[in-house]
Design a protein that fits this description.
Length: about 220
């Protein structure tokens, strides 16, 4: 198996899109709605987990009630999408996408961001043409990525993409779990939602730059 057939499934939030500041702003806004104290980036990265209600449980000491979840989820998304418009791509991301495509390799994008919000934002950054397809979350927000990756890979059937030569590059332990669920590989990037220690618990390669993530993806596909 060679890297000529390698396929990357890119995560969006915290990976290609450097939006961690927007995430912290929105998280603290959602906490303020219920009278909880704000958290730091370090605390966020140490405790973040998907599904998101489990993250709130780690912060609150209990799962949010259904009513609290609705308030926090609505508040988070309202503040996040207002701030996300000012978030740029991660360092080197645009060049890496272009170089991978020029090499004759394929890539796609899968995010837990709502599909109807994701597609216009990716297009606004002018990178949509690099991907075989762009898929966002369809359905409730308290889900993990595994089921969405199953759907994503099924939609790529017929394009020449095979799961054995697919590497998911993301910023969360949930990305590694999703990749394992479908039989793909994963590389995790420290620039997003998790601390390095948290990412290393997933047992997959952990890198500090997207350039290193792409190099590692090539190696994993050989």
């Amino acid at each position: 198996m060679t890297s000529r057939g390698a396929h990357i499934v890119w995560d969006w939030n915290g990976t290609l899109l450097h939006d961690i500041d927007a995430v912290i702003t929105a998280t603290n806004a959602s906490f303020a709605e219920l009278g909880f104290a704000p958290i730091t980036l370090e605390t966020y990265r140490d405790l973040y987990v998907v599904p998101v209600p489990k993250f709130y449980e780690r912060l609150m000491g209990r799962l949010p009630t259904d009513e609290e979840w609705v308030v926090m989820d609505d508040t988070f998304h309202r503040h996040y999408w207002a701030a996300a418009e000012d978030s740029g791509l991660a360092e080197g991301a645009r060049d890496l996408l272009q170089e991978w495509q020029r090499a004759g390799l394929t890539q796609s994008l899968l995010s837990l961001a709502p599909h109807e919000k994701l597609v216009p934002l990716v297009r606004a950054h002018g990178i949509d043409g690099h991907f075989l397809r762009v898929d966002g979350r369809i359905g409730p927000s308290h889900t993990s990525k595994a089921g969405h990756l199953v759907r994503h890979m099924a939609a790529l059937d017929g394009t020449g993409v095979t799961v054995g030569r697919t590497v998911l590059i993301g910023d969360a332990v949930d990305d590694a779990l999703a990749a394992a669920h479908v039989g793909a590989r994963a590389v995790l990037y420290t620039g997003g939602s998790h601390s390095r220690a948290s990412l290393e618990s997933a047992g997959v390669p952990v890198v500090d730059t997207l350039a290193e993530a792409v190099r590692t993806a090539r190696e994993l596909a050989e």
